[in-house]
Design brief:
CATH architecture of one domain: 2-Layer Sandwich
Structural class: alpha+beta
Number of helices: 12
Number of strands: 10
Radius of gyration: 24 Å
Strand content: 5-15%
Largest sheet: 5 strands, mixed
CATH topology of one domain: Nucleotidyltransferase, domain 5
Shape: elongated
Bound molecules: zinc ion
Order of helices and strands: HHEEEHHHHEEEHEHEEEHHHH
Distance between the termini: 32 Å
CATH class of one domain: Alpha Beta
Strand order of the largest sheet: 6-5-4-7-8
Length: 352
């Protein structure tokens, strides 16, 4: 259950929340730290004093650390290096932006309605997108490979026309962004990657690592998939039960299976996924922005689109922001540093 009313929306946000209440809410979701009760944190500056806390009204959390070592007395903001230290927006404004974001409102609307500077709004929206990307990729990584013994996995590539950078791109192949993915017909689980090229070496590696042994793969007739279930595939380490093809060139979208009589071969599910994903990806950006667009779409599809109430969407999103902020950082653990001091600038991309 979310700790706010069911009818929370953009129109009722002001009614239910002020900065103080948002502070409590954000503490609850671990976006910002609570004032620690016992001071066990060693000062990172002098290395000997413990960090005490004192009330402050000039920062978003309402308190700050101070080293109790009289020779040091170092002051540390608990939001140091977190998103909220650079935001310059109030906590209420942050919450409002999250609310706009989970409802897929345009940046333009946010700027207009909230009287924000373009830069601040763009930064916040980018941050939200990073959270989506991080969470979706984390889920992919946590779930691991898809499919399994006797399950069907549809695979397909998707091309997005690449605009801009005209001078540098010469070959036809480079004028497109390429996405490769797989979707399990039975479980609905899927994976997706932006790939540099759609070559055997690139795609087969993903197939080997992301599809469980014993799966049956369905694909279109692209030459890159030839021999996937044959000797070459085996040598590559691909241990699938079978690979069947539906040839689109002949106008066919469903074919009868030879391997499993009565069963149909299709890649309609994954193609449908690409069809919608494409609408949400701007081919104009950099590799990073294309990647973010892709994972933002997949995130919304996975977690938010099926929720009608803004309150439910916000609840899920705040949980994910909180998860992101409370990731322990190895080096900071060693120094017994507050775990909230997470650098937003650090590489948040999971190595997949
Ligand atoms: Zn100190």
């Amino acid at each position: 259950m979310a700790p706010f009313p069911d009818d929370l929306g953009l129109d009722t946000l002001r009614y239910y929340f002020d900065d103080k209440k948002v502070r409590k809410l954000f503490q609850r979701y671990k976006l910002i730290p609570k004032k620690p009760k016992n001071q066990q944190i060693i000062c990172p500056t002098c290395g000997t004093g413990r960090l005490g806390t004192e009330k402050r009204n000039d920062n978003v959390v309402g308190w700050r650390y101070r080293c109790l070592n009289r020779e040091c007395k170092k002051v540390i903001a608990p939001t140091k290096n977190t998103f909220f230290s650079q935001g310059h927006l109030s906590l209420y404004e942050s919450l409002a932006i999250f609310m706009y974001y989970v409802q897929n409102c345009s940046l333009k609307l946010v700027i207009q309605n909230m009287h924000l500077g373009t830069e601040a709004a763009v930064n916040y929206y980018n941050f939200c997108k990073e959270i989506c990307m991080w969470q979706f990729r984390k889920m992919m990584k946590d779930d691991g490979p898809i499919g399994g013994k006797g399950l069907h996995v549809e695979i397909d590539e998707c091309y997005i026309r690449r605009k801009g950078n005209k001078g540098r791109l010469t070959k036809m192949e480079e004028r497109q962004w390429k996405i490769f993915g797989g979707l399990c017909a039975e479980t609905g689980q899927y994976f997706a990657f932006l790939v540099p090229k759609c070559t055997k070496k690139v795609l087969w590696r993903i197939i080997r690592d992301w599809i469980r042994p014993g799966s049956i793969i369905h694909s279109d007739g692209a030459a890159v998939y030839n021999e996937l279930s044959g000797e070459e595939g085996k040598q590559f380490g691909i241990k699938i039960m079978g690979h069947e093809v539906v040839v689109h060139r002949t106008g066919q979208y469903v074919a009868e299976s030879d391997l499993e009589p009565g069963h149909q071969i299709t890649t309609n599910r994954i193609e449908n996924l690409w069809k919608y994903a494409k609408r949400h990806i701007s081919g104009q950006g950099t590799k990073k922005s294309v990647k973010k667009d892709l994972y933002k779409y997949l995130y919304f599809r996975q977690y938010l689109n099926q929720l009608d109430k803004p309150a439910d969407r916000l609840n899920i999103f705040l949980k994910h922001v909180g998860n992101f902020f409370s990731l322990p950082l190895e080096e900071e653990k060693e120094r017994n540093y507050p775990q909230y001091i997470v650098k937003i600038s650090r590489k948040i991309e999971y190595k997949l």
